[in-house]
Amino acid sequence: MADRPLTPSQFDRLLKPLGLGPRLVLGISGGRDSMALAVLTADWLAWRAEKKLPAPQVFTLTVDHGLRPEAAGEARQVARWMRALGLPHRILRWEGDKPEADIQAAARAARYSLMGEWALSKGIYDIVLAHHLEDQAETFLMRLQRGSGVQGLSAMQPVSMRDGVRLLRPLLPVRRARLEAVLAARDQPYIDDPSNEDAGFLRVKVRKALPVLEELGFTPDRLVKTAQQMARASAALDEAVDALLARAVTRHPSGFCRIGRADWGRPAEETGLAAFARMLTGVGGQVYPPRLEALEEVYRAFLAGRLGKGRTLHGCVIAQEKGEAIILREIAASEAGFAIRPGKQAVWDGRFRLMADALRSGLEIGALGPKGLKALKEEGFSPPTGLPRKALAASPALWRAGRLFAAPAVGFRAKGAGKVQCEPIWDARLKAALEEAISEAG
User: Angle at Cα 358 formed by Cα 353 and Cα 363, nearest 5°?
Assistant: First the structure.
């Protein structure tokens, strides 16, 4: 029997536990899954209006990554489809040079960043994504292939945080076939991205292998069930990790961690590894934890006191100090400087969010670096005691016309700079790293 399309009332039940705000954004690529999400949302809004029930204001965003000649035209086509559905739409463009390696991961990060920045600029904190049950199964297999531990193998969560916005995935329990039925019932076209058939990408290989695995009993439902069981184990592990970090780790506002060896002790290995991964992910401004094999090697060197002059992993330097260890951002791996658009929040290096008066025209954000250290000295400014020089160099700085404007992580502001707020991104970012799919879909 053919799969039936999801109905507005069923979609309503999926949305209800998410606690939607008064306004939300849909991420719409134009592919079949996101177009099904758009159709479902339009029908759901009409259904609620018919029943005289309140509903949020919905906006749709499409990111033109500029990676294919057809991308701009496809984004305009999505805009026409959104207008036909009665959904306000905006095209966002990923500007600048594109990386040559790991392009899908970079495009995904850019997509989330652009959508999140646009949403926050409008006072919107919810972004709805179209990930479904097969995405969940594929992600589990991809993480298994990468050698992930308990937390990496956990299921995608219906709600996760990223850079101050909630990423909502109401369709996780829904099979892809039911979304395809939504499109068929409305005769709604969609865009086929050729990269979805490119066997050079791991997700595509996993997707093509799923039918074979199903014959062996590894059905998407069973894989997702296993991921959900891992999520329960992960929740218990999180409690142990939280307690260990609270006991043994000091996080500095300038973005580095000190670990008290005596307080760390000898925790259960899985707890210690997960806590170490969480610190590295936060200090390194990453969206996912380091690979398990590399993590194990560095963690064992830390336990044995054999860090030597320091180890590098995940964009961090792990070094020994008297009775302590320290995790610093590797300055060579930090994000390059970029201009700040007036009136916008700025997230730099995945580690700091800057806000308020300083975000006006003519400013650039980047690492303080040797040039900034020299400028602080010339200004007669003394950073807080106990702050390692390397940590200070890797902290954020605001520049104007080549002159240091502010080093907000350590409290420096040039004359007339006004108020500058700078907060390190710790738990929300790290929680997202452990919960969120390393997904090349959507």
Answer: 90
pTM reported for the whole predicted model: 0.68
Question: Domains along the chain?
Answer: 8-223 (3.40.50.620), 239-332 (no CATH), 337-425 (no CATH)
pLDDT band at residue 128, thresholds of 50, 70 and 90? Answer: very high
Q: Which residue has the tokens 């039936």?
A: 4
Residues 423/428/434/436 CA torsion (nearest 10 deg): -110
pLDDT, tens digit (0-9, with 9 covering 90-100), for 390-422 = 999 999 998 888 899 889 888 898 887 767 778
Cα–Cα distance for residue pair 328/312, rounded to 1 Å: 9
Give me the residue label for tokens 């954004």. 25
If one counts every other C-beta atom within 10 angstroms of the C-beta of residue 101, the result is 6
Task: Give me the numbers of helices (H) and strands (E) for the chain, helices first please.
Answer: 14, 19
DSSP-assigned letters across all residues of 353-421: EEEGGG--TTEEEEE-HHHHHHHHHHTT--PPTT--HHHHHTSEEEEETTEEEEEGGGTEE-TT----E
